[in-house]
Amino acid sequence: MAAPKRYYSGSSYSPLVGNTAAFYSSNQELDQYDDHAQKAYGMPSKYSEDDASQYDAHNAPLTYDNLNTLKGPRPQRPKAGWSRRRKIVVFGGIAIVAIIILAIAIGVAVAVTHKSTPYNYVPLTDQVTNESSFTLGGATRADPSNVQDGIGAGADVYKYYSGGPSQFPTPDKWISFENMWAGNLYAMKHACRTLKEGKDNSDSDNEYIYSAIQNRAAASLVDHRLILAIILQESHGCVRVGETTSVSGVTNPGLMQSHNGHIYSSSAANASIYQMVQDGTQGTNQSAGYGLVQNLDMYGDAYSAARGYNSGFIPKSGNLSEAAGATACYVSDVANRLTGWANATSTCS
Predict the structure, then answer these.
(1) Which fold has domain 126-338?
(2) Quick one: which of 21, 79, 110, 279 could link to 261 by a disulfide (CB 3.0–4.6 Å)?
């Protein structure tokens, strides 16, 4: 920033200092200098050649050689006062610097606070115990690291299903976790913008979802394909998805729209994604919210568990495609996701 212009009281001219008179070569210039000097210092109106020479000597640069030859007092330079404008510039600058320092300090304090208070994720140990779920589908003791555990890629088509669980495709018709993940990954990457929920998942977010599914499947014995199908059904895999609230005040947030569960935290992405997947898979114990584990234990198969997860109960008709106060197509959609549906048009009305 350029230095502020300095003003001197008592004269409209800048002070003439140093050996200034020696630089005036003509009489006209000397007269101009004379006028300037008179106004600035109250000097005689005219200088003779001797006067000019004496002034020149008095104002010669101060060196060791001429230190003892100077005659008379040197003209005193007026003291430079602080103008109003200069005060504003200087004190204004100090205020701006102080504000910047304060902002930096606050930013560092916030960063330290986030760093010192990590996301409090505590893994649960709840597991499926109903043996029917291991036979009819939804639970498995197979190692989830085996991601080729199905019929392959299946077909990207939609077939409408209704009725009881026996009317839905059996687990031997399900595609592999590997193919199910690959077939839906593109849609997951762009789900947040599609749903108008902010910026899309990062690659790291999607890696955390994959890891969380595998981790919670191993801990809970819920089939990793069912966990992924519910995530796709509830949020399309968007980590920033919003939440809904029931008339009784229960919120359904996160990747699996769990019962009074947790939401995504950008400052703790990995831990919050694990938490959201856990909430939907193993339930939210602190608020008595059922996850897939509790529904599989209650109903004994994947499709009834999906209806219970979405509605909270099985309708008296036994038809899993009855809305039961929630989404009519929910269970049919889950069945199609398990058998290869990813992008085809749904035929469920």
Answers:
(1) Lysozyme (1.10.530)
(2) 279
